Amino acid sequence: MLRELLERDPAWKVLPGMAILAALAWPFISTQSAANPQLFGTLCFTCLMVGRLNQRATVFEAGLPIPGRQFVAARLVALLAVLWLPALLAMGETLVLRGWKDAIPLLELAASSSLVVLVTQSNRIREADLPAWPGYAAAV
Amino acid sequence: MSFVLEFQNVVRAHRENEPVVDDVSFTVGQGEVVGLLGRNGAGKTTLIRLAIGLLHPQGGSVRAFGLAPTDRPVEVKKRIGYVAEDQVLPATATVKELIVFHRFLFPEWDMGLERQLKDRFSMPSQARINTLSKGQARQVALLCAVCHRPELLLLDEPAGGLDPAARREFLETAIQLLNREGSAILFSSHQMSDVERIGARVVLIERGKVCLNRDLARIREDFCVAMVPRSALRDGAVLERAPGCLRVRSSFDSWHAVFEKPPEEVSAELSALLGVDGVHCVRMPLEDLFVEMVGGQR
Predict the structure, then answer these.
(1) Using beta carbons and an 8 Å cutoff, which residues of A are at the interface with B?
(2) If you placed Cys at A60, which of A34, A113, B87, B197 could pair as Cys (CB 3.0 to 4.6 Å)?
(3) A38-50: per-residue pLDDT in tens?
(4) Options 3.30.1490, 3.55.50, 3.30.70, 3.40.50; which CATH number does B224-282 get?
(5) What pTM, to 2 d.p., does this model score?
């Protein structure tokens, strides 16, 4: 069931695209700016917004015979994946290009973003089907 | 008759001391079609969400097939089909992907019925949900809700926003398909024509309370509206005290009072009570009765 839900998760669907984007764009962005952590924070935020951080389960999904904990588990796995895969790629590139001192703050930022994922997904927030544009706007 | 759905003194508030559903009790029997009527915000959607276990009752109890939907959600949802106006189908999924997922979730999925509905709706299997029209998306939702042959179909304003032709086709399909199989249907609407077409039992909700629960045929027979000119009666409270009076509403130049009695009897009684001739009493179509029962309160 978890696999079935993951395949349909909006965050899981954008995961390959975000990972490729981060891997290709990060070396250029990070060498042209000294504000790496801020840019990295923007990258994390973009990944999470494109993965619909604000969404738990839609009314349609909630009406299906699927245990609630499986929904939560699928959302958490997909959101953490869409956060950490691009983040790890960017961190790896920073490590190679600029050394470990520059990579550590990025790790801390990714860890803080994970906390945001856990908090938003463990709260019973009101369902909102918001568009993905805030994420794209942040990226721009 | 065995009940597939039971509400007993159900209370649910979204804010403290503002119950959306207040002490509601009614049942839906096997194979029965029940129309949940009420104005916007009357509590229809909340009742349906309580029935499927999306909300917990804060008082009283909800039982579907004898089970509490919030305690045994998966078992209950396997036996229910659910279509709501505000459902957002997965936008980027194709129709085919969605159907395959439902086949996976419901082992008793009826492939024959699926084919029949796809043909009837001329459904494009490869189309993505976000490319479908509103009516087509609702047809996909209906297909997903009925092909496992649910014992209870919950329709929450299912045809809201559809044009009259699409609306009629949607409702007729849902009702014909399931009711001939013996499934029960609870649907909410504020369109009286939907209820009149289907010929269901009517549960009228106003401000979270049940103010009428009766078969449609009996509503037409049992209720009438008396129209008393304001010139003949200054205070509508006199009408409220009359035996059998359910509600009095002030209209432009007359009082409109709903009675649970035949019109001839009401006319004679009011003439005697008020000392005026020509009190006009009529049986009313459901829509007019609905307006008399819940109109003018906000």
Answers:
(1) 4, 8, 10, 13, 58-60, 62-68, 129
(2) B87
(3) 777 777 788 788 7
(4) 3.30.70
(5) 0.79
